[in-house]
Structures are given as C-alpha cells and as structure tokens.
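Hey, resending since the last one bounced:
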Amino acid sequence: MRELVVRLAGENPGWGYRRIEGELVGFGGSLAGSTGWEILRREGIGPAPRRLESSWAEFLRRQAASILECDFLTVDTVFFRRFYVLFVLELQSVACIWPGSARILTVLG
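The structure tokens again:
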C-alpha cells in the first residue's frame, strides 16, 4: 500500500493525501487519510500545492527549448550600400538560425 501511495503522489504531483485516499477507495482499497499523510511525510514528499511549484530558474530552463531571440539591424558598407540583417538565436542550444534556410550555426557550444 505504501508503494502505491508513493507512486500515485509521484505521478500526480497535484494530488494531496485526501485525493490519493479517494483514488485508493476507487481501486477497492481503504486507507485512512492520516495514514496517507504519514506515508507521504516519511517518504519526504511535501504537500500537493508545494510539489507543483517550481523556481524561476527551473521555469526558464523548461521554457528555453521554445524561446527564440531575434534582432533586426542594418549594416552600412564603405561603398554606401545598406544590408538588412535578421538575426535569430535559439536559447536552448545557443545557435544562430539563418531565416529562409535549414542551416544552423552553433555560436557557443
């Protein structure tokens, strides 16, 4: 029963000991709420709302895979020509992406 309680808490971080107790009743088992709370406490599993929280650094690390930075700039040459440059940087891999092509250059790494 202890393994099942720990597994349910690990797979469902939003569930507290009361929800786990209700799920066990649905499986045909019975467990007092205080027993479920004690099992979670002894295993070092905190309350459900705290298990859902993450630090700012963890949030940014998870989001880095989908964040792109871009910059648009102009470059003037000595021959009075102007080039327009769109610069795109993928944060997770720190790679420069050339728009309009499949080429990716690694900047750092």
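Confidence is low (pLDDT under 50) at residues 105-109.

Sorry for the duplicate.
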